[in-house]
Amino acid sequence: MDADVIIVGAGLSGLVAAQQLTGQGRKVALVDQENAANLGGQAYWSFGGLFLVNSPEQRRLRVRDSFELAWSDWQASARFDRLEDEDVWAARWARAYVDFAAGEKRSWIDAHGIKLTPVVGWAERGGLRADGHGNSVPRFHVAWGTGTGVVGPFVRDAEQAAEAGLLTFHHRHRVDELVVQDGAVTGVRGSVLRDDPSPRGVASSREVTGSFELTAQAVIVTSGGIGADHDLVRRHWPRRLGTAPKHMITGVPAHVDGRMLAISATAGARIVNQDRMWHYTEGVRNWDPVWPGHAIRILPGPSSMWFDALGRRLPAPYLPGYDTLGTLQYLRTTPDIAGYDHSWFVLTQRILEKEFALSGSEQNPDITSGDRRAVLRNRIFGKGAPAPVDAFKRRGADFVVAATLEELVAKMNGLTDEPLLDAGELRRQIVARDLQIGNPYGKDAQVQGIHNSRRFLGDRLSRTAVPHRILDPQAGPLIGVKLHVLTRKSLGGIQTDLDSRVLGADGTPISGLYAAGEAAGFGGGGVHGYNALEGTFLGGCLFSGLQAGRAAARAVA
């Protein structure tokens, strides 16, 4: 045996599994097609959001949360409807994960050196029904260091384990086959790729220079999802979301290619819920890209007005920050706009400065560096937009700025193949909204949401602008942002039991084979069901990697 356990994929879930294994003295071979600069995978690039329930941070902000409320929200969002088949393990994983988020998770991440910022975000506010999708309370905790702060402790553990002789890195080794003998997975075979010193995230060479084979008592697949392969995304695009966009932009590095799903299936693994996926409608093209089609998601506060490609305001609950997939479904299934691949934000400079954040570790240098003073200066007490946001406003291909609405609409029309927007119609809708701003109450659902948000101290301090008229010259200039569909996460994947053992077509475990992270739908083949509550992707990698590592360590004792 070359190792006790082979882990395929050096992303967050793979590193967590490795940490559990080497911490118990097991020898690990960590195999990844990218170079050492890419340790941590996609999670490194994230904003570092973690879903926690009844945390000290929530309690300090007077947020009342509980396992019961969170589990109610999760079930209403997931809408598991394949409980006799594809969701049978996913639903069990979901309850176990919410229990983890309400219990062990907070002390566990703290013990591993992951520290949290004091402000809790209110992401994915949902469909405006108590029994519908969404978070009833703020639960989005951001780690100091963003994604780098979540990944960093486990990278250090892996490097220390390598120095101690318990872990061997196999960079630039691409797995092409799981070796199966007498019904059990006993190793991997694949191609050695040409050395490529490219920086993290940059698309690397696929030139093959040799082959390899490794053997072990167990293999854990932690290779991620399909977000960088638009052909795969379109192949599995569900009818309920209408037609797939002709043009999408990419929120994950090129190595997130989904190859290991088909390879695992060839070895007998059951792949489930492939029609469940998570893509954002607030994507913008990166003016300084790292990987092909590199895009950034806007993390919007509640005040920007959202218009479809024809200039009609999106109805509630399709509001900024409320219902990600509901908005995507609306834009892709409404007949007269489904043929267009974009929508629009219209906002003011005042909203941009207070409410706009950009997803990604590199777009949040103050939090990523852990500079508390810079966070206070940039996000609480400072004037002007944070530097990365301002850079997109000045240099981003999807941003236009103007002093008047007529000038703004002309510039917005200049970003499309044909002029679809009418300044008079936009003015009518904006004026109607602005008339609702004069009171702390009113009939406009979005304005109600703004006032609701301002009642939460965290949003009032850093994420929600003082209510004002969009057409107030003192709040300007006006800003228009062209929004694209940005590919991101697979919600389905390899079906596993609660020990992360991969299940075959007959529902029984395949000996020696485990899966975790996005490749396993973050556990069970689809822990999120149809909808995610945000902050649950990194947490899903942590939890499923933890479960896989613990189970595999027991199995190879």
Automatic annotation (TrEMBL):
InterPro entries: FAD-dep_OxRdtase_2_FAD-bd (IPR003953), FAD/NAD-bd_sf (IPR036188), KsdD_DH (IPR014614), Succ_DH/fumarate_Rdtase_cat_sf (IPR027477). Gene3D superfamilies: FAD/NAD(P)-binding domain (3.50.50.60), Succinate dehydrogenase/fumarate reductase flavoprotein, catalytic domain (3.90.700.10). It comes from the Bacteria. The keyword Oxidoreductase applies. Pfam families: FAD_binding_2. This is FAD-binding dehydrogenase. Keywords: Flavoprotein, Oxidoreductase. Residues 4-538 form the FAD-dependent oxidoreductase 2 FAD-binding domain.
